[in-house]
Specification:
126 residues, 5 helices, 87% helix, 0% strand
Length: 126
């Protein structure tokens, strides 16, 4: 049953990401990177709320946590999940690992994105 909650949340999160981007472009002519920034920031806000709610209240059902945190927010923005992991490391006082995660995720993400485009253009000849 947990797979169903995650899948349902993921489908709604992906659709929401698309709709927010489309709305921002239609209303304000904001495309990337601004629409992506807004999606990432709002996803982090909601992830922070969910994280704190679970920490303080512990009243959220396992299904709702899976639906929202893994499914919906995971599809809406992986950036919120990334921030949850960094904050969790900070809460555990694993500061160097949190900082390393920030630096490596950003730097390696950029490098591997460039590598992927280069490989595709030069080896696959797209």
């Amino acid at each position: 049953m947990q797979f169903l909650w995650i899948a349902l949340g993921g489908a709604l999160g992906a659709l929401s990401r698309y709709l927010v981007g489309a709305f921002l472009f239609q209303q304000f002519k904001w495309g990337p990177p601004w629409s992506t920034l807004i999606v990432n920031v709002t996803g982090c806000l909601v992830m922070g709320i969910m994280f704190a709610w679970v920490e303080v209240k512990s009243g959220l059902s396992s299904e709702l946590r899976q639906f929202m945190m893994i499914g919906f927010l995971g599809a809406y923005t992986t950036f919120s999940t990334y921030m949850l992991e960094v904050v969790s490391l900070i809460d555990l006082q694993r500061y160097s690992l949190a900082f390393t995660s920030i630096i490596l995720s950003t730097a390696l993400g950029f490098v591997f994105f460039i590598l992927g485009t280069w490989l595709t253009k030069n080896l696959i000849k797209v």
